[in-house]
Amino acid sequence: MAKPNLGRRVADAAEIALANNKYVTFVDVVTGLRWLHSRHVDLWRQGRAATLSELAAVDDERLRDAAAALGEWARRRGLRPVATPYVSGSRDRGALRFTSGGDQAEFTTHWLSPDLSEARVKALTERQAKAPDLVTVRQEAPWTCAECGGTGALLIVEEAEPHCLTCADLDHLVFLPSGNATLSRRAKKESGLSAVVVEFNRRRKVYQRVGVLVEAAALALAEESSLADEELRLRRRDRDRVRRAEQDVEFQERMAAEIARLFPGCPAERAREIAEHAGQRGSGRVGRTAAAKALDENAITLAVVASVRHGDTDYDALLMSGVPRREARERIKGRIEARLAEWRAPAHPADVQAARKRG
Hints:
There is one protein chain. This protein is α+β, with helices and mostly antiparallel strands. 51% of the residues lie in helices and 12% in strands. The chain has 16 helices and nine strands. It has a six-stranded mixed beta sheet. The protein has a three-stranded antiparallel beta sheet with strand order 1-3-2. The protein is elongated and about 80 Å long. The N and C termini lie far apart (69 Å).
């Protein structure tokens, strides 16, 4: 296909995007040319493809020709170029790549209409610069965790490979299904660590949001602020009833006692909290493993470490800011070891009250 013909096709696709949005992106053009489907763009944004060209119907050279044609058309139309970052929705929050080599600037330029107000331009720029939500995928097809070899209902991509929620340190979060935008927004705002859950819609051939993973305490706060809504009150009672039915009280009491034996300096309330969280039936957490059920010392210690990691350090904040999981763990390693050493020491009466105040 001759380049003049490509220029006309690019211009046609760009005009449609400009009319709809008052700005044009390279992604708008390649989807308008039918070189990519929106589901391919979703996969790329989730970090499940190294480059956009891997999913396109054309090669790198053709994509660069289209980008050049878009730039020529935009300059003729007097559009304003704005460089914009493209950040992956995977755990590493790395910069997305369009092609395997070369400068990516020609792909990341957004072309804005001169009719756009400064307020709109600022809003668009801030939205694009903001780190995207972490994305987990509800996967029906068989898959294997790259770290532990296990599987699960949800996966998250790290370094272009699938990981289960346990290996990705997200298994302490609870799932809030879509359906109540206010509750989801409040829970996500209250949660220090959260992730959007998507699922592939085979009929529409796109990934759709089906819910969000949030901290249990954040969900409770969000529900508390919405108690005026009768439907939410009924839902909360139903959820509490299910949770009580799932609790294995006897096992959790034995686990709490073992935590107290191994970590005599751990506050009693905290030991019960760890046992209830790790030992919840059907959770798949370390407390439900065969080793933990046998009160294996290593398994119990892992449950305590997980609690300290999420509750006593800034680990979740590091993950949300884009710090890779292994680096985040290395940063907080000393604080975890210090807390474990503190709890392993026998509790003195004078220390008990201070430990309770610390929480």
